[in-house]
Amino acid sequence: VSPPSAHAALEAAYRTDRRRVRATLIRLLGGFDAADEALHDAFAAAAEQWPRVGVPENPYAWLVSAGHYKTIDRWRCQARLEAALPELALLAEVSVEQDLTETIEDDELRLIFICCHPALPPDARIALCLREVCGLTTEEIARAYLVPAPTIAQRIVRAKARIRDAAIPYEVPPPHALPARLDSVLQVVYLIFNEGYAATQGPDLMREALCEQAIRLGRLLVQLVHEPDVLGLLALMLLHRSRRAARVDAAGDLVLLEQQDRSAWDHEPIAEARGLIDRAFASRRVGTYVLQAAIAAVHAEAPTFAETDWARIVALYDDLLRADASPVVALNRAVAVSMQHGPAVGLASVEAVLAQGGLDTYALAHTARADMQRRLGLVEPARASYRAAIEMTQQPAERRLLQARLAQLGPA
Amino acid sequence: MRYACLIYYNPKVLFDQSPASQSVLAQCAGHDDVLKASGHFVSAEALELPESAMTVQVRDGKMSTVDGPFIETKEMLGGFIVIDALDLNEAVRIAAGIPQARLGSVEVRPVVDFSGAPPIL
């Protein structure tokens, strides 16, 4: 093998295998820091050896075993030999070559589960997941979340210390623990997506990168975990993103679903999402993400706003309420009811939801009430509701939208 | 990205001849090579003690100099290592391997990339 092709092979391995090599090294060496050092050593060894002795048949396996043995060597050389002896004995027992290819996917999945472990605070889970699974740098995560880089760096350092000190095992949870642990994983992925999606202000591409990373994670999970809600989450994210171009106008203002130009929706992900939702429903174990995706799909497949199948949407919200009896879901159901049966029935449903409490500081509840009051000609109550909503809204584009609605009611 | 690891220590601790400080000093000698082998090394210098320093100021076109600073504070800047790292977390991990971190402290500072806009304070 000539040196230029060794160089190309090394670059290709760095691009495609680095994450998986690292995930396996974390398992073999039992920690992030040791794995990072070993990864570095492995690529340094490859840069030195591949041009001389040729590119190995399986670069992944070669890099894993190089990193593994370099680490054992290093630990032997170091003065902390005595302290490391039990670890060393353990390492020597692990045969790297054994069924490596079969465990690659498991290693990636283990990494996701450890990064999203419920023992870690939610913001630490997000930062850890973006850095360790998605491969974003600390600085990129900081830019996306509009916080100083040392804040993110600290979260990651503390999370790793916590994983080490609490001896959180690097493993895919056993079947009985899987649903609860998977919930945490899906929640982290959806939070990452929403952080990128909800930001309509500012042209910073890092925010959009968050959506892409969340969808990438969703696709990875679909390959690794065969649970309907995993399909549902990916479908939900694809459906939201399919409306991206129509969601904000040239001035950067939000465009509501009703006014969006449906020809600007991206139909390929909508079709893909439909396939995922059908697969999830076929399993007959339908969870909250599947139901949310199914609702979004009804909207996505309606040729016009007026032709939306509201009865189907209300029925899906009924199912969702049974799975997740939250006031926000009840509010969304009430809005769908108003579309199906008119604003008077809708307003009664919204008032009933509000009366149950829990939504007093939720701007969208007041917006929904205001819209129905406006449609019913209840000008003064509508005005008060819009004002309440504006007071609770920080996002500039959303505020502008509400102020425009308020102004349409005429002078007070 | 490049990061400067500014190494602070108390000379009375680092040069107290104890086994702990002897071990740190012994490892310092070879640490540049460790960083070179891993590909993180850019440059490094150790600094003489502040007694041999001069502080310069120019005000209204006039230069003034003073000796020192002298060792009054507990920790002082004793040297720096510039490293190339993937991100702040990798830089912190590498800085944690600097032997003096065990007796003093290492401040990790990103090196300015002048392609960006200056900070607004």
Report on the architecture of this protein.
- The complex is a heterodimer of chains A (412) and B (121).
- Helix content of chain A is 74%, strand content 0%.
- Chain A is built from 20 helices and no strands.
- Chain B has helices at residues 11-14, 19-37, 88-96; strands spanning 2-9, 41-46, 54-59, 62-67, 76-84, 105-110.
- With 121 residues, chain B is of the alpha+beta class.
- In chain B, the strands form 2 sheets. A 4-stranded antiparallel beta sheet of chain B has the order 2-5-1-6. Chain B has a two-stranded antiparallel sheet with strand order 3-4.
- Chain B is flat, with a radius of gyration of 17 Å.
- The A-B interface holds A 33, 36-37, 40-41, 44, 79, 131, 137-140, 149-150, 152-153, 156-157 and B 1, 23, 37-39, 86-90, 92-93, 110.
How is this structure best summarized?
The complex is a heterodimer of chains A (412) and B (121). Chain A has 412 residues and is an all-alpha fold.
Arithmetic mean pLDDT of chain A: 87
**Which H/E pattern describes the elements of chain A?**
HHHHHHHHHHHHHHHHHHHH
Outline type of chain B? flat
Biggest sheet details of chain B: 4 strands, antiparallel
Q: What quaternary form is this?
A: heterodimer
Task: Give start-end ranges of low-pLDDT stretches of chain B.
Answer: none
Structural class of chain A: mainly alpha
Largest interface: A-B, 18 and 13 residues
Distance between the termini of chain B: 23 Å
State mean pLDDT of chain B (0 to 100 scale): 90
Separate helix tally of chain B: 3
Give the radius of gyration of chain B.
17 Å
Radius of gyration of chain A: 26 Å
Shape of chain A: elongated
- The percent range for strand residues of chain B is 25-35%
Strand content of chain A: under 5%
Structural class of chain B: alpha+beta
